[in-house]
Structure formats: C-alpha cells, structure tokens
Amino acid sequence: MPSAEEIPLDRQHTRLTWRILWRTTLVYTWFGLYLFVLAVLLAPLLWLAGATWDPQRRLARRWTRAFYRHAMRSYCGSRMVIEALPGQAIPEPCIVVANHQSAIDILLLFQLSPDARCWAKDWPFQKPLLGWLMRLCGHLHVDNPNVLQKAAESIRQGVGMYVFPEGTRSRNGRLGRFHDGAFMLAVQTGVPIVPVAICGSGRCMTPGYVAIFDVPISVRPLGILYADPTVPKAHMVLKRQTHSLIAAALDADGTSHAMDDRRSQTIST
Predict the structure, then answer these.
(1) Residue 258 scores a pLDDT above 70
(2) What's the predicted TM-score (pTM) here?
(3) Is 171 in contact with 261 (CB distance < 8 Å)?
(4) Contact 24, 212 (CB under 8 A)
C-alpha cells in the first residue's frame, strides 16, 4: 500500500479514517487548550509585562513559541524535520521569508531560533482569543498603513520579522508571486533576509479542509541574503533571489507538484 505522501491529494482527502479523525480531534484540542492558557490564564501577566518592563513583548512570544513547539513536535514527531543553516546560526535580527501553504506555517517557523514578530492579515486578529494573543505578542497588522515603519522600529530594537510574502496561502502548492514589503524593509534597515522553504505543510493541513494528515514536513533555511544598496531597485533584486531559492527548494522536494490544481471535493464524514 502506498504511503500517505505517495497518495495524490484528492485521493488522500477522501480516505478519512478513524485514525485521522482521532488525530485531528486531539490536535485541535491541544492547540485550543494552549490558546486558552496563553490568551486567558496567562494574559494578565503577559499584558502587565508588555505595559511595564517588557515593551517589546518578548516574554509573550517566548512562551507562545515554547507552547507551540511542544504541540508541533508532539503531533508531528519524527515526521517533522527542522534543518539548520550549515555552519552558522540564523542572525538576529533578521527577516525570515517563507512560502505559505497552510495555517500551521507560522507555528512551523516558531521551531526556528530567532525571536521575531510576524505581520498578518485581518483574520487572525479577528478571531476570539487568537486575536488577543496576536496583540499580546506584538504581531503586526499587514493592512496597517504604518506597518513598514512599525516593522523597522521593531528591527532597530533587535526584534526581527516573520513574513509570508505571497500574502496568502497557496491553493495548489505552487509558489506565488512575492510582494515587495519584506524586501523594501531589508534595504531600509540593512538586516538580512533568511529564505525558508516549508515543505509538506500544505498536505498536512490543506486550505479548505479540517482534517490533519500524517505526512513529512520540513522547515529548511536556505541561506542569508543581504541587499546591495548600490544597485538600482535593490529590493527587486533581493526579491528575485529569495523567490528563486525557495522555488528551487520546493521543486527539489516535489512539494510544488504534489498538490493537484483542482480543489478536491469537501470532506464528508
């Protein structure tokens, strides 16, 4: 019998077994419990810290990373591989730029070492508890007209950024075009871009589906890129370099071809 990663996406999503249902229920339960602990039970302490001695909200982000590192490693186990940059650590602060296939991608980036804010669209800020936790952690709203200024201030204070420059999750696994913001920020602040390829998350938790499938996941930093401010449109050059590195990593992994162009039919239990 073929393994889960060898089953085409549409077939995989019609094979809803009791094991998958149990796994999905368990994961959502633990994730919801951790969210409740962070956004309700610990919220007064985290808010007080942010209002007094921890204006950069490092404590909230540190605890959130610790909780969800535990959650991700518990349900992914040996199927999740977090790679390191050969011979060096990821610099801080930096701008981590990654492809985006699934709602769990930000939790996967939490497996990396840098303390960083993320910038996100409306939906996480509008969700009960999750929106409160986003604010407690000091994450930025991408639609805020001052988001680049706020991000630059954060970097000057030693806190980097997690950015998904596609702007939205890929629906077919292929890498979309990148927006300019992260690369303009790199040119403005002089900090490096660290391209990261996330492989497998779109097959683990696919947009439009609730079930969580047991497939290999890898998080792979691809290098350290600095903008050359002496070249015209330096941010565009940096954007092309980053896009090429991530696209090549996804092609080598087979991720960009593993998800069918057509949306599979909705799971029915």
Answers:
(1) no
(2) 0.86
(3) no
(4) yes
